[in-house]
Amino acid sequence: MPxxxxxxxxxxxxxxxxxxxxxxxxxxxxxxALIVVHGISLPPGEFGGxxxxxxxxxxxxxxxxxxxxxxxxxxxxxxxxxxxxGAPVQYVPFGRRAWHAGQSEYxxxxxxxxxxxxxxxxxxxxxPYEDAQYPALAAVIRALLLAYDSLSTEHIAGHxxxxxxxxxxxxxxxxxxxxxxLVSR
Length: 185
Description:
This protein is of the alpha/beta class. The protein has one domain (5-183): 3-Layer(aba) Sandwich (Lysozyme-like), CATH 3.40.80. It is 18% helix and 21% strand. The strands form 4 sheets. The chain has a 6-stranded mixed sheet. A two-stranded antiparallel ribbon has the order 1-2. Strand 6 (80-82) and strand 7 (88-90) form a beta hairpin. The longest helix has 15 residues, at 133-147. The protein is globular. The chain starts with a strand and ends with a helix.
């Protein structure tokens, strides 16, 4: 499943696009230099519904589930979500700043949203991610590495790595060695 990034648009070719307005321009002259892997399920522990699309596009109905009423107000997004079946969905073009990292720091640089690409894996910290998700995530990362000279395999981190004590995802259920092996192929 090779993917390709159209560097003119910042979009992955051949994947579902649900473009969000929860993004803005990166600071002038800043290129993506970090890939951040997250975990998301909405509501927690439930998979496959439309709710991630709604969250990232600002259309989440607060009354559709009790958990939705406790989500803090705000605008959030990621560049891509890899669903449980391995299907990537893109929300923000890679050249734009998605709002996925929050208060964060990586190797002395703060505000990771400025210089990172956020990829959400549909899952939780505790449950194993699906087999189909790993090759899809690796294929997206390989496409990004080909498209952006500013990215490298040495700069792939979890949300927990850039926001320790505040975030735990993608969690202990995420198989980092497996991902690194797949990306290097």
